[in-house]
Structure formats: C-alpha cells, structure tokens
Amino acid sequence: MSSLIIGLTGGIASGKTTVSNMFADLGIDIIDADVIARDVVALGSKGLQAIAARFGDKILLKNGELNRPALREIVFSQPEDKAWLNALLHPMIREQMLAQTAQAKSRYCILSVPLLIENKLDEIVDRTLVVDIDEQLQLMRAMARDNSSKSVIEGIMQSQATREQRLKVAHDIIYNDKDIYRLEEQVKQLHEYYLQLAY
C-alpha cells in the first residue's frame, strides 16, 4: 500500500486528467473517481438499473448504456434529482475509491476526484493538490471539450467549489495557465517532493 495519498482536484476542464496522466507516466498509481463513476453505472450495473428505474428510457442510449448528456441536463436543472443521484452513487464510488487506494503499490498514489472538497473526501487523503486555472479559460475549454452550452457549463461550475475555496485548502497547487511543458515541469517537481515525503 502507498504510504502517502495525494488528493488531486480542480474544476471542470482545469486539466486534472492531463496532470494525472503525467503522474501515471512517472510510475504513480492513479485512482480516478471519474473512471469509478463510469464503472458504477456501466451496462448491467446496479447503479444503472436504479437510474433507469427513476428516470426511464430517456436517459439510455440505444445500446442500453447511460446517456450522460441527457442525465446531466436533468440533474442540473432539478436539484432534488441531483440529490437523489448523489445519494445513490457517492457511497458506491467512495467504497471503490477506498478499496483501490488500499491496493495501490507505488510509493505514493494519486486519488483524482473532481469533487474532492465538495464531498469532503479531502479528509481521506494526506495532501490536497489543486490544478488551478483562470475561470474564463476554464469556461471556454469546457464548452469546446464537452460541446455543451455556456449555461450548462456555468451551472456545473457553480455547483463546484469556487476557485478560492479550492486554493484555501490546497497543500500544493499546479498552475495550468501556460503550455504543456510548464505543466510537466510542475508535475516533476511535485513528484520528487512526494517521493521524499513518502517513507
């Protein structure tokens, strides 16, 4: 088991995945909440069955898989539906995250969680690493990446911790405001630092 757990977080389209991939390239085990979140609603899962029972076939694709954009539109406009979905999925995701963290083999591991702070998961990590980005740049990147409307992305951003809230609890910060080389440089510096902290 890793002796040090780093909680990696940041708002939508901040560059978390790029950063976690860079740590993975350095041989670090990554436990990714987004991957786990997809697994718990995969075809045939209890999670997907419960969601379909509540929202009906309109949230399913023709092949029976979850239609994420359709579900996203519903839950971000209906607070009670969002609360129901969170109550269903968060315990499942948390259980898997803890299991995978316990199985990590690298000297330290990265627990990548978009809502680390919002869901108080920073309580289960040793250090919190925030990928920081200017909010206007974040909005533009998210709209381009997800092909979603400005209002949907703004709704997601408003549902997440603010930039200030994230920075306030951060032990370490990676600034994603320049090019990929600057990003790599910061990851390598933190990698060396975390190796020193991991006994």
UniProtKB/TrEMBL annotation:
<dbReference type="GO" id="GO:0015937">
    <property type="term" value="P:coenzyme A biosynthetic process"/>
</dbReference>
<protein>
    <recommendedName>
        <fullName>Dephospho-CoA kinase</fullName>
        <ecNumber>2.7.1.24</ecNumber>
    </recommendedName>
</protein>
<dbReference type="InterPro" id="IPR001977">
    <property type="entry name" value="Depp_CoAkinase"/>
</dbReference>
<dbReference type="InterPro" id="IPR027417">
    <property type="entry name" value="P-loop_NTPase"/>
</dbReference>
<dbReference type="GO" id="GO:0004140">
    <property type="term" value="F:dephospho-CoA kinase activity"/>
</dbReference>
<comment type="function">
    <text>Catalyzes the phosphorylation of the 3'-hydroxyl group of dephosphocoenzyme A to form coenzyme A.</text>
</comment>
<comment type="similarity">
    <text>Belongs to the CoaE family.</text>
</comment>
<feature type="binding site">
    <location>
        <begin position="13"/>
        <end position="18"/>
    </location>
    <ligand>
        <name>ATP</name>
    </ligand>
</feature>
<dbReference type="GO" id="GO:0005524">
    <property type="term" value="F:ATP binding"/>
</dbReference>
<dbReference type="Pfam" id="PF01121">
    <property type="entry name" value="CoaE"/>
</dbReference>
<keyword id="KW-0808">Transferase</keyword>
<dbReference type="GO" id="GO:0005737">
    <property type="term" value="C:cytoplasm"/>
</dbReference>
<keyword id="KW-0963">Cytoplasm</keyword>
<keyword id="KW-0547">Nucleotide-binding</keyword>
<keyword id="KW-0067">ATP-binding</keyword>
<keyword id="KW-0418">Kinase</keyword>
<keyword id="KW-0173">Coenzyme A biosynthesis</keyword>
<comment type="pathway">
    <text>Cofactor biosynthesis; coenzyme A biosynthesis; CoA from (R)-pantothenate: step 5/5.</text>
</comment>
